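Blackboard transcription, Thursday session:
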Amino acid sequence: MAAPLTLLLIVAVTIRAVLFRSSWAELISERVEVVSPLNAWKRVVEGLALLDLGVSPYSGDVFHETPFMIYLFHFVVDYAEIVFMIADGITAVALYLSIQTYNKNVFRKQKYALESDRYPADCLELLRSPKEMFYIPLKVAMFYLLNPFTILSCVAKSTCGLNNAIIALFILCTLKGSALLSGILLALATYQSIYPLTLFAPALLFFLQRLYIPVNLRRSSFWFFTLQYAFIYVGSLVVITGLSFFLLGSWDFIPSVYGFIFSVPDLTPNIGLFWYFFAEMFEHFRLFFICVFQINVFFYTIPLSIKLKEHPVFLIFMQIAIISIFKSYPTVGDVALYMAFLPAWSHLYRFLRNIFLVSCVLLACSALFPVLWHLWIYAGSANSNFYYAITLLFNFGQILLVSDYFYAYLRREHHLTHGLYLKKKDGTEATLVLK
Amino acid sequence: MGLLSDPNRRKALTGLLTRLNTPICIVCYLAGIVWFMGLAFEPFTLRTYMSENAMGSTMVEERFSSGERALSLAKEFDAHKRKAGGMPVEWLVKAMQSRGLEVFTQSFSRKLPFPDENKERYMVRGTNVYGILRAPRAPRTEALVITAPCSPGNTNNQAVALLLALAQYFRNQIYWAKDIIFLVNEHDLIGTQAWLEGYHHTNITGMEYSPLQGRAGSIQAALSLELSSDVITSLDLVLEGLNGQLPNLDLANLFYAFCQKLGVLCTIQGKLQRNDWDTAEGYTHAAQTMMLMVLKQACGRSWGDHGLFLRYHIEAASVRGINSFRHYKTDATTIGRLLEGMVRKLNNLLERLHQSYFFYLLPSLSRFVSIGYYMPAFGLLAVILLLRVSFPGLCHCFSVSLQPSSPGVLTVLTPVVISHLTGVALYLLPVHLQEMAVEHFPVSETEAVVLTAIAIYTAGLALPHNTQRLLSGEGTEQGWKVLKLTALLYLAVLLGCTALINFSLGFILAVTLVPITASITPHMPKALYAVVMVLLSPAFTILYCVFIYQELIEAPVSVSEGWMLFLSVISQGILDHALYGSLVYPLLALFIYPCWLMFWNILFWN
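(Written on the board underneath:)
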């Protein structure tokens, strides 16, 4: 399997290299859909210039990257294009390896269940064969590397690609069972953009499951491991933040990065839900609605963790998707990360109901974003409402996509325990409804 | 969400859509056309009203009185123009300077990609003269533009003269809060383009021009004046700009308000307004006016000097004087007063015109149809494509194409790529191959370009479906369904985007493309459907539009004249793209035509 992956990497790098050299690169790096105030390359360059002048990069209101990021680029700024291509490659390989591991686990579990005769007789057709699972990791890598969203994001040199790489490495370490590395990488991802904080729950659930520790609040082993993992996580977060302080010699970055993420002062349009809302809102409601909007990202962790506590990897997917929909400055790079997981759930296809509608909506929206942007900004004939309408539709499509996969996943699990052909009490064919 | 998550209701809905798919599609198509034609019916339209406060309540009194002097100036200008054999730059500079303006000139040159036979030009070299009247009452951060093209022959002399007379009059007034730029441009649109690019420091079309020496603030609005006789019977307002862009409706309202006030006959698309909307003639008249607007907008070219201003966010319109055989005549003083009034109201603006509509159709000057009313007409046509997409057979294909190792995706890729390569050839080759064509065939450059385009267009019909058969042997049933699904989605997105930018173009394309694309399958009688498809292809759409346009402006043409017009329309389309960046030609060549070829491919799938 290494050869196709190598070929894929070569193709992906070629596409990116060609685009970097073309006149499109500049155009793409200006698109609001691709870069946000948080991860625009222009702002990184500005921060670097300030750093070189001996001024704190956070003075002024332009630069919002973390200190690690600026020191990374301090050394490799001349090779930025290569760094972004490598980051995409790392993400793809990490996703490839994690899905490979995950599929092995799934298959092993399925074999045990089959041997112990736990599946109803009529749902054998739902079981997954190694043949169909063989190409899934490759497809995942392909979905990430050849996704136009990822390519755009990489060509625009949006640092979103680097954050994705960290999250992908975190997933890989988690699935490989290394709690230490997983905790450290999760801390790094949190340090980069806060929101991956919600991935703590699925990672913890995964380790508990892996170590056969039941999720039981009265068991000391549960608390012992939870505290252990939390300690690794919080400890590395403190160390990383401390290191940043020593690098810069000031705490400037806390309000400039995290305050910026939480309080959403920059209302440049993007594909998210925040900008229009807060541009229209009266100032005195702002704090309340910021809380509501931000809690939205974190809140789903609790019900989803309860519902999906047996399926932490699917939970990771759900969390990444929710983050990318509800975060304050989303870009298409974030969308690309969770879309890469879709091939891993290809066995759910028969239970998906709206996938066709959703793909049409997402496709049409991707085409309409630039058109309405043009009408609004260049032609001056449309206004922000037109653009926001498409943003809403795009997010509606994404939410429908995620909830569709969620429903399909639960339904498959339900069938695996209750049989495929359900009957109502009166003997007629039953249908499952998600309410 | 019940509809999306409850399986029973979904089943009922999809069942309904499947059973009644064809009738629903037919009903939608007819409803779309009827809706569109209904837009011209007066009770369905809205009366225009002034939205901008700064222009509405403030009354101005027009005092301009030197119409006679303007006419004598026109004679002088004519004499100097004849003597100079072009634009009398020195005379104009002196005339403007003596009226107290800051005068500057800008020279420009442009080599056309191929000779323009309509206007007989190839190497264009010219000079723009403009004078700035500095505003005494404001910090000079904003400006208005009045422009008059200096045309060859003895046309448009009165416009230039009136411009000078207005400048003289305006100079003596104290209430100006915006700089006023008086621009006389040579070579009509090319001159305007050079001046605008110079003013905004851009160069998007490869024009060579000298930089502007004097500038005013950001331009808020522009009026272009075209006047070729001493007295006129009516004034015509031209709004359609580059790529179908329209100025804010308030500019049209302003013009209409002053025409009413001064008792000047005003027309749009050269059609007077009628009051008998409840009679058949009245409706037909309104429908014709609206159709003319739709056709003009759809062709995406700038119908006056104002059209290029729109790209820079400047609201602009052309005012054109018409002299026909009516008895009712208006003299130059009244036209001067009308312009004075309009400029004074624009001078009162506190912010850019933005209150009123940017998307509208005008069945008459006092009535308009806004985007909310006309979009459903397009929506009804576009929904047919989506209905056909959701046709269960196709939906099933979608699921198959997502499955691993399906043959569908790759067989579809070949026709898609080939169609698009044909499109690229259609876009690039005509202009680049003209020299070769001229060498080998007895044609002029312009003919070479147009005929090459037509040849490539025709060759495209033969090429893709043959290669497809060579590459993958027999086409499978699955294959064409996946291709049709892709093509339908592609067309729907394409038309949707087009209609948002230029409604008329999107609608006209939808009217001709939707019926055939929605119904095409490989199992139909090939010869018959091939003829129908060709008759409804983009090129024939242009041909029909030429004939309808000629019919509507009451200058019907014979078939051969129509054909010649068709050829000149194509060459003008290519020139507009090269000179001003009009997007219609690349859109048709790179997207619509390949998309149509994909459907052509489906017809010849087996």
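Lecturer's comment: The mean pLDDT of chain B is 85.
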